[in-house]
Amino acid sequence: MITLICDECGKQYKVKPYTLNLTKHHFCGSRCYGLWQRMHRIGVGRKRVIVYCDTCGKPIERVPSAVLDHSFCSKNCLNKWRSEYLSGENGSQLKGGHNDYRGPNWNEQREQVLIRDSFQCRHCNSTNDLVVHHVTPFHLFEQYLEANQIDNLITLCKSCHGVAEQVYYYEHPDAFANRILPITIRHKVCMRCGSIYSPHSPATKVCDSCCTFVCAYCGEVFVSRKLDRIPKYCSSACRNADIFTGTRICPDCGKSKHPDANRCRKCDTVWYRLHPEAPRRGRKPSH
Fold first, then answer.
1. Domain map of the chain by residue range?
2. Distance between CA 12 and CA 3 in Å, rounded?
3. Could you tell me what percent of the chain has a pLDDT over 90?
4. Number of other CB atoms surrounding residue 130 within 10 Å
5. 98 pLDDT exceeds 60?
6. What is the mean pLDDT of the chain?
7. Pick from 193, 110, 105, 111: nearest CA to 143
8. 102-115: buried (b, 16+ CB within 10 Å) or exposed (e) per residue?
9. Distances (CA, A) of 197 to 63, 89, 98, 211, 214
């Protein structure tokens, strides 16, 4: 064993002789090595690029391999960006799934086309690597039912399928700009009105018209998908406000009244004089 002096703390320590020529600097432990690195090798060997958060614009250091199309400094910024750009009409779930999804009836239609074409390519009669091809591309339709019709599907091998895709867009150069993501959610029957509608999610059971209401207090339009009852108010605040103003103010004169009475005492007396045939409130019927 030989004795060396730590370059950071100056402490003597013993090591085996072969370690003397391994490095130029020697340290008694990992702690001293880390402290020395902080003082003498700041930024050495670091390859960083500066990117900016897509939400707040904060500069971020990233290694080149970690630079993506969108960068975020925190999960909060990531969630804000997703709620703005990947939700609602921009979300793939609203239209049924990812870009390669072909609708809920795709497997059935695909099987029928393969049987119709005897599991052979319609162009070269090959039986290997078969795919079902849309004659008119799937992304040019608004509904998956129109795109997945049997007349619009043929069986091709992978090589012929690639050629067919290129030939179509070569013959129709303007069609590429009109590519859209068709709505691929399975249609449902509304549980209230019985109409056929396209749901926003698999859990939706009523159409948009049957779950849209007008608040009885503030008059604002709100959405409620509860099936057990038809809501009257958009929030508990409107409900409480309507109950307070509706039961404590007389509808005839606008003055305060008892919450259990329909009108104040003065207006109630006048109303019963004008309607003598009406039964008195609280009076028991005579036998």
1. 2-40, 49-86, 106-178, 196-274
2. 6
3. 22
4. 20
5. no
6. 81
7. 105
8. bbbebeebbeebbe
9. 48, 17, 21, 13, 21
